[in-house]
Write a structure and sequence with these properties.
Layout (H helix, E strand, L loop, with lengths): L3 H7 L11 H8 L6 H5 L5 E4 L3 E2 L9 E12 L8 E7 L2 E7 L4 H7 L6 E10 L2 E5 L3 E3 L8 E4 L8 H14 L9 H5 L6 H8 L11 H26 L10 H10 L6 H14 L6 E6 L5 H14 L3 E5 L3 H14 L6 E4 L5 H12 L5 E4 L13 E7 L6 H11 L4 E6 L5 H7 L4 E5 L10 E6 L3 H13 L3 E5 L14 H11 L4 E4 L5 H12 L5 E4 L12 E6 L7 H8 L10 E6 L5 H12 L3 H12 L24 H17 L7 H7 L10
């Protein structure tokens, strides 16, 4: 059993510490430092060595220095706002100590004339004379000053001295926590304890040396705690018993054979995984991850058909109405004629919507397709057996848990995303779910040819576009900005739209973030129906929508986009059988990173490879805005440099799951690192 009292100290409010008043506590909370444990994670970035004293003649401007000197003269001006000044000296020269907002009596007390005083602070120079403004450390006892001090990323209003004092107080009071890892795991980190690790990381001599075992030990704890929570959520969901779906494989085969294309090996493998889940007595909670154009939708439709054939209803949610409409049209084409397929949207007629809801409740509808509105309270099902959610990769763990609960015990959950992400991120973001991956593209789809062009060569691009239009093809033209910016030298969508309208009259339309939802849908539908040839847009182009006639995308200022985003944009074309092209336009004088990104994209159409490279270049938190989507942002662990720790944690979790090991010993670890609701379910 763990000692609950010990780890409770680490979760105490900061005001429980000596010297931390309401003001200091509030300043720290603004930096999301709410308790003692949070403060411990604010590791020092460097340190100030005050153990090396200097003579005045040897002082270095801009550095923190420690000097033993003698105050020889006071200067207390009577003019308001002028600083108080104390002239000090040693045998090598003189220096002015400057004080703002300090009383005469206080200055005379800390700097008595004629006595040897040790002072420490940052050295400046004014009018060819050394000066020290508001020195941080002043003492007659030099031993109190001559030491190393950590330099933290400070919160405004808290001095280095106060910050170090608080941290040192915590380090001295850290309770001994009972070890939660096995001997095998500890041996990987030279048997260093959690307590020793955290103490070592706050020692000045260890700053910057993050290769040591004490750093890796804490990084591993952080990773492992996240994986453990995900594992417990996954186990909790799997404990839910449901009615098995009976898979009619003969009917499935008939539908597959009726398709005008063959399933890829990846599609067949994933379909088998999903069918096994559907026919299992345990609830399915699975993520289907696939690159753009890999054919996730048809797999989800086959799962829906198998569910309906087993006597259940299906709900399919898409992020936008136009994508929902696309799914609806495809379902009407692929599903058996006796299946009742309906769509519900905000534009549905009131009487029609009312009738749909009534029929849904009476099980006169087999599958309902729509946006998030299908999960409103007024929408009820007779026998919901499967929920499919498309393009919802930004759903957090808590949202997914609520979704699972809403579906009921007999309802399986299938989430889909066209956002390929690195393996370490997948383990972090979706560790609470079973994972299926489709990497293989249909044979009928040709790889997108990617080119790079200088903006000065735009005439060549325009000739190419003109040729494509004559062939009956359509073009996306993506710009990074809506309007011209004074700060950024990027092409705006509005300016490019006006430019192209002159060259291609009545063949160009414009789409951007300020376009209303209604107008956006009209524009995209018109483009889908080939009513115009060029769509000038910002990055708001719908993910997941097929525009089979669009086979060219031009991306302006391509060097300003991340790799993953460029790949997602490129995936708007290549949905038909024609050869598609992506042209990356850029200005001259590219950085080495920009050149690297463009070359990677030109040489690969594999979104998973591209996402790995993107993470190496930009860091995991910035890929496709995951930082803003609530993804676990590790304080120490780095998916790039600590990939071995991620794999080690995953292996250990699988061992624990297989052996059904009692995990109560990990409860303090989970509380410290995640404090997730799931801990209530841990024995």
């Amino acid at each position: 059993m763990y000692n609950e009292r010990n780890y409770r100290f680490l979760l105490k409010d900061l005001s429980s510490l000596e010297g931390v008043g309401i003001k200091t506590a509030n300043l720290l909370k603004k930096k999301k430092i709410n308790n003692i444990f949070d403060l411990l994670w604010k590791l020092p970035k460097t340190y100030t060595d005050r153990s090396l004293s200097s003579k005045i003649k040897d002082l270095r401007i801009g550095e923190n220095q420690t000097i033993t000197l003698v105050p020889i003269k006071y200067s207390f001006p009577r003019i308001r706002n002028l600083p108080n000044r104390v002239l000090c000296s040693d045998e090598t020269g003189e220096i002015d100590c400057i004080f703002f907002n300090s009383y005469e009596g206080y200055i005379k007390k800390i700097l008595p004339l004629g006595k040897h005083i040790t002072i420490s602070g940052k050295i400046g120079r004014f009018r060819n004379k050394y000066q020290l403004t508001n020195p941080k450390y002043i003492s007659e006892n030099s031993s109190l000053i001559k030491q190393k001090h950590n330099t933290y990323s400070l919160t405004d209003g808290i001095s280095e001295k106060v910050y170090n004092k608080i941290i040192n107080q915590i380090i001295q009071k850290i309770p001994l926590l009972k070890e939660w890892h096995s001997k095998e795991i500890l041996s990987k980190f030279d048997n260093i304890s959690w307590n020793d690790s955290i103490k070592e990381l706050h020692k000045p001599e260890n700053i910057g040396n993050y290769k040591k075992h004490f750093y890796k030990r804490l990084a591993y704890d952080e990773i492992f705690s996240t994986f453990l929570v995900n594992s417990e959520i996954r186990k909790k969901i799997k404990r839910i018993k449901k009615k098995r779906k009976k898979i009619d494989y003969k009917k499935q085969e008939l539908i597959i054979n009726s398709l005008d294309f063959s399933l890829t090996n990846d599609q067949k493998k994933v379909l088998k995984e999903i069918n096994n889940d559907l026919s299992s007595p345990n609830k399915m909670f699975r993520l289907l991850q696939g690159d753009v154009g890999s054919g996730k939708t048809i797999v989800s439709f086959l799962a829906a058909i198998n569910t309906i054939n087993s006597g259940f209803q299906v709900a399919l949610m898409a992020p936008t109405e136009i994508l929902a409409k696309q799914h609806y049209n495809l379902a009407k084409k692929i599903f058996p004629q006796n299946f009742k397929v309906r769509m519900i949207s905000g534009k549905s007629d009131y009487k029609e919507k009312k009738e749909t809801l009534k029929n849904l409740e009476l099980h006169k509808i087999d599958i309902i397709i729509g946006t998030h509105a299908i999960f409103q309270k007024k929408v009820s099902f007779k026998k919901l057996g499967l929920i499919i959610i498309d393009e919802q990769h930004k759903f957090g763990v808590n949202q997914r848990k609520k979704l699972s609960d809403k579906g009921g015990d007999n309802c399986d959950i299938l989430l889909m995303t066209a956002t390929p992400i690195p393996r370490t991120l997948t383990m972090t973001m979706y560790g609470d779910m079973d994972l299926s991956i489709i990497r293989e593209k249909p044979m009928s789809r040709k790889p997108i040819q990617t080119y790079s062009k200088l903006e000065s060569k735009i005439d060549d691009v325009l000739k190419f576009i003109n040729k494509e239009i004559k062939l009956g093809n359509q073009i996306f033209w993506v710009c990074p900005l809506i309007e011209k910016s004074k700060k950024l030298n990027h092409t705006s969508a509005i300016k490019k739209y006006e430019y192209l309208c002159d060259l291609f009259p009545n063949q160009v339309s414009l789409l951007h973030g300020k376009t209303s939802i209604e107008e956006k849908e009209i524009i995209l539908n018109n483009f889908l129906q080939n009513k115009f040839k060029i769509l000038v847009s910002t990055t708001v182009i719908e993910v997941g929508i097929d525009f089979p006639n669009a086979n060219v995308i031009i991306i302006e200022n391509a060097n300003k986009f991340g790799l993953s985003q460029l790949h997602q944009l490129r995936g708007r074309v290549g949905r038909g059988h024609k050869q598609s092209s992506c042209i990356l336009l850029f200005k001259s004088n590219l950085s080495e990173n920009a050149k690297k990104r463009i070359n990677i994209l030109k040489n690969s159409n594999d979104g998973f490879i591209i996402s790995e490279e993107d993470m190496k270049i930009r860091g995991f938190g910035d890929i496709l805005g995951f930082k803003q989507s609530g993804i676990k942002n590790f304080k120490l662990a780095d998916p790039i440099h600590n990939s071995d720790l991620f794999l080690l944690a995953e292996k250990e979790i699988r061992r624990i799951e297989k052996s059904k090991e009692d995990i109560s010993k990990f409860k303090p670890l989970i509380k410290l690192y995640d404090r997730a609701d799931i801990i209530n379910d841990i024995a």
